[in-house]
Amino acid sequence: MAIKNMMIDLIKKLPKAELHLHIEGSLEPELMFRLAKKNNVSIPYKDIEDVRKAYNFTNLQTFLDIYYAGANVLITKDDFYDLTWEYVLKCVENNVVHTEIFFDPQTHTARGVSFETVITGIKEALADAKQKYGITSCIIMCFLRHLSQQAAFATLEEALRFKEDIIGVGLDSSELDNPPSKFTEVFKKAKDEGFKLVAHAGEEGDFSYIYEALDLLAINRIDHGVQSINSAALMQRLKEEQIPLTVCPNSNIALKVFETYQQHNIKALLDYGLNVSINSDDPAYFKGYINQNFINLCEHLPLTQKDIITLVKNSFRSSFIDNDLKEAYLAKVDLALQ
Ligand code: HPA
Ligand code: ZN
Asked: Is the full-model pTM beyond 0.70?
């Protein structure tokens, strides 16, 4: 399907919010090489071409193995600053005016890099993004679900020192066999501490994982959630309650959640009336930032201009910003449409 220039223009000109972005997944190969050299960390690639060839995934786990190996090059506060700053520049390029980024503290603390090093680097880059470009942001820390709930409790404990910098907690990593129910108590504690709650659910795991995230973890948003299509009762509930699903099309294709863009169900979810948004997940690994996700979908699915506008407005509606800022951003979207 040839995508019309008009659609590309619309995608580019609309201010957007991004709600599902792993900062470690925005590590571009060029920066990976630079940091590997600087920090004397060995990486299993001889050049950038070699890296690109390795980014040939067959499922979530084959990606995660490479993603965690890549994160090993991140050591100092400046490394986390540079990582985040490069993503900020992509936000500018993609007209992302508000972003809620995930980080995985356990990936770094397990290597002896302190929680403080990680969060300070990220935070300083985001402060500069606000100052230089007016980009607003929040930080969400994710528990690695392949690790124990006890390890998640220890991470939550550490995070309390940085509570004012972290808006919420999430759940990521290997979904299959690590259902939300494994983390019921730690999410309860996080809620009591005042954190917003999100969880990856229904990416590779079936729709029962989405029910668990809703009923056991009491999450505010579902990350991915595309398997909801397999339960009529769940679809009805997600619609009624307008629970946000942060969908990541390029990721879903790269990790073979759907074989092709034509088979992606976002248009079906949208037509049913679910609150879905478009996000880039791990853009350095999945070939493209947020605009490219929109463009790839439009090339293969009959998304209308109205659909694009709904997806973009949903991104602001589902964000964790206060209502005044939400309204201001929604007004900016309308202004861009005039
Ligand atoms: N799913 C689960 N864990 C992740 C992902 C994802 O898409 N990206 C980074 N960690
Ligand atoms: Zn994700």
From this structure: yes
